[in-house]
Structure to design on (111 residues):
């Protein structure tokens, strides 16, 4: 069972956001990438791991999805790339819409 591709993923969440449910996120991902069947692969394992909304993704590590649910490592890492990108996109849209720089972003800029 080769798992060398798996690595920890840092998921930054923002308290200023309302996050989509896991079901909504997977449905949108399936609509944008019809051949991958994201819901079929990830909905059950992530729900069983306790993930309900996109900001809960820190609960399930890439390695846990591989070890406990047998998901292919490359698919797991691809999925996490979509998760991180979606969170960042939601955050950017929120800040632009409200014309703000949230405290999390302000802290990053000041470093």
């Amino acid at each position: 069972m080769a798992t060398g591709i798996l690595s920890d993923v840092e998921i930054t969440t923002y308290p200023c956001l309302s996050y989509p449910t896991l079901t909504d996120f997977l449905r949108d991902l399936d609509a944008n990438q019809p051949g991958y069947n994201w819901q079929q692969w990830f909905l059950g394992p992530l729900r069983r791991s306790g993930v309900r909304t996109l900001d809960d993704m820190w609960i399930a590590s890439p390695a846990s999805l591989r070890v406990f649910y047998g998901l292919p490592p490359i698919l797991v890492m691809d999925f996490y790339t979509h998760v991180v990108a979606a969170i960042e996109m939601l955050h950017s849209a929120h800040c632009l819409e409200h014309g703000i720089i949230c405290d999390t972003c302000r802290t990053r800029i000041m470093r």
